[in-house]
Amino acid sequence: MHKPENDSSGREPEKIDISSGFEKSDVKITGILVFITALSIFVVVTAILCYGIGKVINARMDKEDGPTSKWAKTVDIRQLGNLPNNPEMQNKVAELTQQFPTPRVQLDDGNQDVADLHAREDLLLDNYSWVDGTHAKVRIPIERAMELIAQRGLPVAPSVQTAPLMTGESAPVIQAPLTNGFARTGFEQQEAQTEAIEAHQREESK
User: Fold this and answer.
1) Which residue among 154, 171, 186 closes a domain?
2) 176: helix, coil or strand?
3) 34: domain range?
4) Which of 108, 149, 168, 188 allows an S-S link to 184, with CB 3.0 to 4.6 Å?
5) pTM
């Protein structure tokens, strides 16, 4: 039988009981229970605080919004669902938005608004119309205005006396712009292309 060796201090090594299959001294159930209890208390206290803060914020918002009126009322938008792209749902959205005064938030990315603005501008630029309600001034199409200017010419501005150029200076050269500063948006160009294709298909069908 092998005799256990003594350590440097002369004491025999401690005997370890391995019958249980694990080290009993490392298992501390008390610490685990204290941690779980503290975590549960923290979660409950945090939930109560969040609920209270939410109630305070909602009460403050209701106080600032004032009493319910035709301009301020609660609308349940959940009944609209996922808002599929169909006329019926768009009419419902239009009815809801009509309850609020202008200016309203745009329902799309603004392409249609820009196209409508250019259509109104084209209506004024390409047709005759009265400037005001007195019928004293008439707005003429821009093409006709350009023809009149080409026939009559522009008024000549009085000459401006300029100081002589210093050594090394040169007279500024003004270059005419390559465009008139107006360009259709991509949305309008796509709409025009679609209308042209549809018109061509209608002509072919005839």
Assistant:
1) 154
2) coil
3) 28-65
4) 188
5) 0.34
Q: Is 189 a member of any domain?
A: no
Cis peptide upstream of residue 103 (ω within 30 degrees of 0): yes
Which CA distances in Å does 187 have to 74, 182, 183, 197?
A: 35, 15, 11, 15
Query: Is 168 within a domain?
Result: no
**What's the total number of domains in the chain?**
2
pLDDT tens for each residue of 136-180: 888 899 889 989 989 988 888 777 777 787 777 887 776 666 556
Last residue within a domain, chosen from 13, 36, 65: 65
Let me know if 151 is exposed, middle or buried by CB neighbors in 10 A (0-12, 13-18, 19+).
exposed
Say if residue 99's pLDDT is above 70: no
Give the C-alpha separation, 10 to 39, whole Å: 48
DSSP class per residue in 91-126: HHHHHHHTTSPSS---SS-SHHHHHHHHHHHHHHHS
Beta bridge partners of 130: 138
pLDDT digits (tens, 9 = 90+) for 25-71: 666 788 889 999 999 999 999 999 999 999 999 888 888 777 777 66
Q: Mind listing the pLDDT tens digit for each residue in 2-24?
A: 455 555 556 666 676 677 666 66
